[in-house]
Amino acid sequence: MIKLFVLIGSFGxxxxxxxxxxxxxxWMIAVxxxxxxxxxxxxxxIMLFFxxxxxxxxxxxxxxxxxxxxxxxxxxxxxxxxxxxxxGVKLTVNGLYKVPKKTNFxxxxxxxxxxxxxxxxxxxxxxxxxFVAKESLFKIPFFGRIIRHIGYVKVIRKSGLDDTQEMAxxxxxxxxxxCSLCVYPEGTRNKTFPNPIILDLKEGTMSFAKKSGRPIVIxxxxxxxxxxxxxxxxxxxxxxxxLEVIPPEEYEKMSPxxxxxxxxxxxxxxxxxxxxxxxxVRLY
Length: 284
Description:
Elements: H1 2-21, H2 25-56, H3 70-86, E1 89-94, E2 106-109, H4 116-123, E3 129-134, H5 143-150, E4 153-155, H6 164-175, E5 180-183, H7 203-212, E6 216-222, E7 236-246, H8 248-251, H9 256-272, E8 279-280
Helix pairs in contact: 1-2, 2-3, 3-4, 3-5, 7-9
C-alpha cells in the first residue's frame, strides 16, 4: 500500500515537473520516465524516514531496553531495504536452512566492512537477533537510537572504560531465549583483506560463546570490502554463506583457544571457497 501511494505520488510529481519545463513530446516522455524513477526513490526515502522518525520520537537516547524489540527490528529492516534498493545491491545467501529454528544461537562471521551487519541482519530478518556493535554506531542520528532499542550490545574500545554490563546483558538475553547474537570474533574490521584472509580471533569471544551454551553458527560474507567502489554507479554483488553449525556438546570441553582454531579453520575455508549454490534474497 505504501509503495502504491509513493508510485502515484511519483507519477504526479514527475508529470508536473515535465509540464512546467515545457519540453517537446519526445523529451516529455523520456524526462517523464526518468522523473518517475527519481521521484519514487525520493518520496520513498522521505516517507520511510518520516515513519521511522515517528517511531523514535519517544525513545530516550541512552535508555537501555529491558528486552529484545521485534517492532524496532521491523522498522530497521525497512531502513535496510531502502539502502539495499538504493545502492543496487545484489544479495545472495547459501545454507540458510542450516540456521537453527528451534533455539537461538551465537553467530560468528568474518568482518570486512561497516555495512556487514546491515546485510547479515536483513538476510536473517526472520530470526530474532541482535549484534555486538562498536560505540560510535550508537551516536549516529536515528540509526543509533534504533539499534539501541532493538537491543544491540555496545562495545567500548577506549582504554579504562568498561563494557562488561553490556556483554552481560547480551548473555542474559541469549540464555533467556530472547534472541540470538552476532559477534565478530576478529574484534574489528579486516581493513587489509585479503592479506591476511582473516585476523586473529579473540579468545574472549570464544569464552562468551561457551558461556551461552548455545549452538555456534559460522558464516562467511563476501564482497563488502568493495562496497565503497562506485557505490551508486554499479551493482554490488554481496554473498553470505552459512558454513557450519557447532552444537554445544561439540565445543563444551574445548578450551577457548581450541575453539578459536576450529572457527578460524572453518572461516578460512569458507572465505576461500564461496558457495556456488546461491539463493537470491528477494528485496521486498
